[in-house]
Design brief:
single chain, 579 residues, alpha+beta, 8-stranded mixed beta sheet, 4-stranded antiparallel beta sheet, 14 helices, 19 strands, rod-shaped, binds guanosine-5'-diphosphate, binds zinc ion
Length: 579
C-alpha cells in the first residue's frame, strides 16, 4: 500500500486553505472580474428569462359576445329584391371547443336542398361530354354526391356535368359576398372572464377586479385592464382591417399574460392583454380565411329539406400565460440558510450548533492585509480594539487620526509562554530594582514638559524632520490617564534586559561585542517585544507604531551614543527615514 499506512491516514480529509488578502488593488480586480461574469450571467438570464422562479398558470376562460347586426340578403341570384334581417348573439356566435369563440361575419346560403338527382357543379373534374366520362358509383372527397353514370346539362347553361345522387341543387362554388354581410360585427364586444391559479403558490385571482366599470372598453393605454373588447379595436391593434378579414374570415389570438410577483411586500398580479393574427393572411394562401358549413333542416310537404349555410367568420383563440415569482422571499430564505456558513454566523442565534463549522471556518480562512506604505496600526491602552490607519496622513499627527477599529488579534499561547519564560529572570543584578524605582519617579516629574497631544504625561516631542514628525506624535492613550510605561507589564516584558537578551540569543547566538551595537540590538528587540505584546500577530506588528512614551522610554533604557534615532521604517515603502 503506497500512501495509506495507518488508520489515521484513512480518516483524513484534505481541503484547500484560503487566504483573504485585504487589498484595494486585488479587491478591485476581483470585483471587476466578478462584475464581468455577473453581467454576462445576468444578461444571459434576463435574455432567457431564467431569473424568475417560474410557475405555469392554470386558467379557465369564459366569453360573452354582444351586439346586433342588420343584414341585407339578396334572396336569389340575379334578383334585385333584398330582405333585411336582424342578427343577434344566437345567430352569429357558434359554440367552439376550448378557449375560443367564433363570430360569424359573412355567409352564403343554398336554400331548399332536398335528396335527389342533379348535375354536379361544373369544375375541371366534373365537366363531361358524354356518359362515358362519368362512372356509376364514383365518388371522391371533393364531390358532392355519388355519380349515376349519366352526363347531363347543367341547368340553363351550355355546360354538361356528371349527374349525382346528392342534396340538390348542389351548392355553387362562388366567392364569399363582398362586402361582408355582417360587416357591422366590428362593433360587437366580447367580455372575457379569466380565472387563474398558481397551484404551487396557492394563489388564485381573476381579471375582473372589484370596482370594475362594466361599461368600459379596453384600450391599450387608456383602459388596459378593462376585460371588454370591441372586435374592431382588436384588429386595429394588430394592424389588420376588420372589413377585409370579415369577408373570408380569420383567426385572431387574444393573449392574456399574467406577470405576477407574489412577494408579500410587492404583491402585484395583473393581466396584460395583447393580440396576434393567427391565420395565414398572405394573399397566396391556398385556403385563406376561416369557414365551415352547417345546415338548418325542415320539412316541406312531408319532404325533408335543408338550408345549407357556408359560414365565414373570425375565431378568437384566448391564450393565457403567466409567471408567478417569489423573488424576495427566495432571497431571504437563501440568505438565512447561508448565514451560518459565512461571516455573519457570529451574530446569528441560529448558529449555535455550528460552532464546529466556525472552528473549521477559522482554520480555513486566513485574513491578511495587503502590505502598503500607508498602512499603520496603533493601539491605545484605554481601548480594547486596535486601529488601522490606511491613508496618506498629510501632516496630521497620528494621535488625531481616527482610522478603522479592528479586533486585537489574540497572541498565540506559544508566543505568550515564550514571553512568560523570561518574566521572572535570573536573580536581579544588584541595583536594578532601585533603578526602575528611580525612573518611575523621574517620569512623573517630566509630565510637565509633555506635548499638548499627550494624554499620559510621558511623551516627548519627536526629533524627526518636520515632514515625518506626525508619525511619532502618538500617545499610549486616547484619553487622560496612567501611562503604559509605568506598568509592571511594560517593565517586565519590554524593559527587562535579561528577557531581551534571552530573545536575542535565539536570533544571534553570539552577542555583539561593543556596547553601542548591543544597545541597538536590545532597543530594536524591545520595539519588537512591544509590538508583539500589543498587536499580537506578527503581520500587524511590522506596521504597528510605538507611542512616543514607549519609544523614548525604550531609547532611554538602551540609548544610542549620538542620540540620532532613525525611527519607524515601513517594511514596504519609504517610511520615516532620517536622511
Ligand atoms: P536606529 O536604531 O538609529 O535606526 O533608530 P531607532 O531606534 O528608531 O530604530 C529604528 C528601527 O526600529 C527600524 O528598524 C524601525 O523600523 C524600527 N522602529 C522604530 N520605530 C518603530 C515603530 O514605531 N514601530 C515599529 N514596528 N518599528 C519601529
Ligand atoms: Zn503620552
Ligand atoms: Zn504613555
Amino acid at each position: 500500500m503506497p500512501d495509506c499506512c495507518s488508520c489515521g491516514d484513512v480518516f483524513q480529509y484534505e481541503t484547500v486553505k484560503v487566504i483573504r488578502i485585504q487589498s484595494a488593488n486585488y479587491g478591485t480586480i476581483k470585483w471587476f472580474l466578478h462584475m464581468l461574469v455577473f453581467s454576462y450571467v445576468s444578461f444571459a438570464l434576463v435574455k432567457d428569462k431564467l431569473y424568475q422562479q417560474k410557475e405555469p398558470v392554470i386558467s379557465s376562460v369564459h366569453t360573452k359576445v354582444k351586439g346586433i347586426a342588420e343584414v341585407k340578403e339578396t334572396l336569389e341570384k340575379g334578383m334585385k329584391e333584398t330582405v333585411r334581417s336582424i342578427f343577434d348573439t344566437a345567430d352569429y356566435t357558434f359554440p367552439v371547443q376550448g378557449n375560443s369563440f367564433f363570430v360569424m361575419t359573412n355567409f352564403r346560403k343554398t336554400e331548399g336542398q332536398e335528396q335527389g338527382l342533379c348535375p354536379e357543379y361544373p369544375t375541371r373534374r366534373t365537366i363531361c361530354s358524354s356518359d362515358s366520362n362519368c362512372k356509376k358509383g364514383r365518388m371522391n372527397p371533393q364531390s358532392n354526391g355519388i355519380q349515376t353514370g349519366k352526363c347531363v346539362k347543367y341547368y340553363n347553361t351550355t355546360k354538361k356535368t356528371c349527374e349525382v345522387t346528392a342534396w340538390c341543387p348542389i351548392e355553387t362554388a362562388e366567392e364569399a359576398p363582398k362586402p361582408a354581410l355582417l360587416n357591422s360585427a366590428e362593433n360587437f364586444t366580447v367580455f372575457i372572464k379569466n380565472n387563474i391559479d398558481f397551484p404551487g403558490h396557492n394563489y388564485t385571482t381573476r381579471n375582473i377586479f372589484p370596482g370594475l366599470n362594466t361599461t368600459c372598453t379596453f384600450h391599450k393605454t387608456r383602459d388596459p385592464l378593462c376585460p371588454i373588447f370591441r372586435l374592431g379595436d382588436i384588429f386595429q391593434e394588430t394592424g389588420d382591417n376588420f372589413s377585409d378579414v370579415a369577408i373570408k374570415g380569420g383567426i385572431m389570438g387574444i393573449e392574456i399574460y399574467w406577470d405576477c410577483n407574489l412577494d408579500r411586500w410587492f404583491q402585484h398580479c395583473r393581466p396584460k392583454y395583447s393580440f396576434r393574427r393567427l391565420d395565414d393572411k398572405s394573399s397566396e394562401s391556398l385556403y385563406p380565411g376561416y369557414n365551415f358549413r352547417y345546415a338548418k333542416y325542415y320539412k316541406e310537404n312531408n319532404v325533408e329539406k335543408r338550408t345549407l349555410i357556408k359560414v365565414f367568420g373570425i375565431r378568437f383563440d384566448i391564450l393565457v400565460f403567466g409567471t408567478a415569482t417569489l423573488f424576495i422571499d427566495f432571497l431571504i430564505s437563501t440568505y438565512s440558510s447561508k448565514c451560518c456558513g459565512s461571516q455573519v454566523y457570529r451574530f446569528c442565534k441560529c448558529c449555535e450548533p455550528f460552532a464546529v463549522n466556525e472552528y473549521y471556518h477559522k482554520k480555513k480562512f486566513e485574513n491578511i492585509v495587503a502590505p502598503k506604505s500607508t498602512l499603520k496600526y496603533v493601539s491605545f491602552v484605554d481601548e480594547s480594539n486596535i486601529r488601522m490607519v490606511d491613508q496618506q496622513l498629510l501632516g496630521r499627527r497620528l494621535q488625531d487620526v481616527k482610522g478603522e477599529e479592528v479586533p486585537r488579534p489574540l497572541m498565540e499561547f506559544r508566543d505568550l509562554s515564550r514571553l512568560a519564560l523570561s518574566v521572572h529572570p535570573s536573580p536581579p543584578k544588584p541595583g536594578q530594582p532601585e533603578e526602575i524605582e528611580l525612573l518611575s519617579k523621574e517620569e512623573t516629574s517630566t509630565s510637565h514638559g509633555s506635548p499638548d497631544w499627550c494624554q499620559c504625561g510621558n511623551c516627548l516631542p519627536s526629533k524627526l524632520p518636520e515632514s515625518h514628525r506626525y508619525l511619532e506624535e502618538l500617545c499610549c492613550r486616547k484619553g487622560k490617564g496612567q501611562c503604559i510605561t509605568t506598568s509592571e507589564a511594560f517593565r517586565k516584558l519590554i524593559l527587562s534586559r535579561s528577557t531581551l537578551q534571552f530573545f536575542l540569543l535565539y536570533e544571534k547566538p553570539l552577542p555583539e561585542p561593543d556596547a553601542d551595537s548591543s544597545n541597538r540590538e536590545l532597543r530594536h528587540c524591545a520595539y519588537r517585544c512591544y509590538t508583539a505584546w500589543r498587536f499580537g500577530s506578527q503581520d500587524l506588528a511590522d506596521f504597528a507604531i510605538l507611542p512616543s512614551c514607549c519609544r523614548w522610554r525604550i531609547r532611554k533604557e538602551f540609548p544610542k551614543s549620538d542620540g540620532k534615532y532613525s525611527g519607524f521604517k515601513s517594511p514596504y515603502g519609504c517610511g520615516a527615514q532620517q536622511s
